[in-house]
Automatic annotation (TrEMBL):
GO molecular function: acyltransferase activity
Key word Transmembrane present: yes
Name of the featured protein: Acyltransferase family protein
Pfam family, one: Acyl_transf_3
Keyword line: Acyltransferase, Membrane, Transferase, Transmembrane, Transmembrane helix
InterPro entries: Acyl_transf_3_dom, Acyltransferase_3
Positions of transmembrane segments: 12-34, 59-80, 92-113, 142-161, 168-189, 209-228, 240-256, 276-293, 314-332, 338-356
Keyword Transcription regulation: no
Superkingdom of the source species: Bacteria
Domain Acyltransferase: from-to ranges: 10-357
Length: 392
């Protein structure tokens, strides 16, 4: 990868933060009332009412698809010149401490709002979350994306472990192609929603196992990997054709997701708006990476701010749904006007995310890395001693 592109890309931290914010607005300002059985509605006691916020709020879920593309790009950059051990430690320390902290806060939020769920059931959900169990129920429904991310990470880890980094691009092209073909088939089958074919595709769409196989969202990870390849190596027409294909597949997935939202809420959604949001984000992505050398010349305070926004994104994503919903409901029940309550909730969640990214998360990450280093040193020492004894 060219020097300026191998460095930190501040534009991606801004894009990541934007994605987290629109997902937060979607859950707090739309899902909280449009889907009464959802966790954010339950945590807020169903008192939120933003039915006049139907212009953009219903489409913030497209931020998840943006996350997946960023992961495809960033993870392959980190994996390209990493060992399997270093990659595993970096991913573990990036994912696990944040979940341990935020899941604990979500558990406390559930206990405080008193929605009638038994504490033992909440604790079981908490354990499944902090243990990264691949299937719910989790302490917060947003944790569904973690299993999908981990499956992608696991694939990268296996390729590193077997020294097959050169296979990353062709394998991801294959995964992206399978995902795109699935959504082409789904779109075709959806023309007759009473057909057996559509029923079959719907079963796959709802399947957690298919999610973990990256059938539904593999196209986004593949798009990110192809963007990495485009900017790091000599691009070809074939590569651009793959990008166009995966862009189409991504739009078809988003259109299918719109149908899913329709089924859950009974409301009508146009797939055009979330497609425009995602495609606009991809255009920004392209510009940010292509002009990274210029971005690196921004003032230090600006780069530090962008980096902090990027670090806040993970706890923000993990906190906003249940913890944010509990705050929103409490504010409204205290007599605070809905719009002010929403603004206050967002401010509190942002402040808490900043604090987590600044204080407890780095400390826990440092301790986790130190533990891995200690265990590795002991293992190497034991292996060395065993080798000497065997030689003797």
């Amino acid at each position: 990868m060219k020097a300026h592109q191998a460095q930190y890309v501040p534009g991606l931290d801004l894009l990541r933060f934007f994605a987290a914010c629109i997902v937060m607005v979607f859950h707090l300002a739309f899902w909280s009332w449009a889907f009464p059985t959802g966790q954010v509605a339950i945590a807020s006691h169903g008192v939120a009412n933003f039915k006049d916020w139907t212009t953009l709020a219903p489409f913030g879920w497209a931020g998840v698809q943006i996350f997946f593309v960023i992961s495809g790009f960033v993870i392959v950059v980190s994996a390209e010149r990493s060992s399997a051990y270093k990659f595993f430690v970096s991913r573990f320390t990036r994912l696990v401490p944040g979940v341990w902290i935020c899941a604990t806060i979500a558990l406390l939020a559930w206990l405080l709002v008193d929605v009638g769920t038994r504490p033992l059931s909440l604790f079981a959900m908490y354990v499944r979350s902090v243990a990264f169990f691949p299937k719910g129920a989790w302490i917060d429904s947003v944790y569904w994306t973690l299993g999908v991310e981990i499956c992608f990470y696991a694939l990268m880890f296996v390729l590193l472990l077997t020294s097959r980094q050169r296979w990353i691009k062709p394998i991801m092209c294959g995964i992206g192609l399978i995902s795109t073909l699935f959504w082409i088939g789904y779109t075709f089958a959806a023309q007759d929603r009473n057909s057996e074919l559509f029923e079959l595709f719907s079963q796959v769409q709802w399947s957690r196992f298919a999610q973990l196989l990256l059938i539904q969202h593999g196209v986004f990870f593949a798009f990110g990997v192809l963007l990495w390849s485009h900017f790091s190596k000599k691009s070809s027409r074939g590569e651009l054709a793959w990008l166009v294909l995966f862009a189409m597949g991504g739009c078809l997935q988003i259109a299918g997701e719109s149908v899913l939202k329709l089924e859950k809420t009974g409301l009508s959604f146009s797939p055009l708006t979330p497609c425009v949001i995602w495609l606009s984000a991809m255009l920004f992505f392209w510009i940010a990476v292509a002009n990274n050398a210029r971005a690196q010349q921004l003032p230090d305070w600006c780069l530090q701010l962008l980096r902090r926004l990027g670090l806040m994104t993970y706890p923000l994503y993990l906190l906003h749904n249940v913890t944010g919903g509990a705050l929103l409901g409490a504010f409204i029940e205290w007599g605070i006007p809905s719009r002010v309550a929403l603004a206050g909730t967002i401010a509190v969640v942002l402040a808490l995310s900043w604090w987590i990214s600044k204080v407890p998360e780095p400390a826990l990450q440092k301790s986790t890395r130190a533990l891995f280093d200690t265990l590795r040193a002991r293992w190497q020492s034991t292996s060395s001693t065993s080798g000497v004894r065997d030689a003797g």
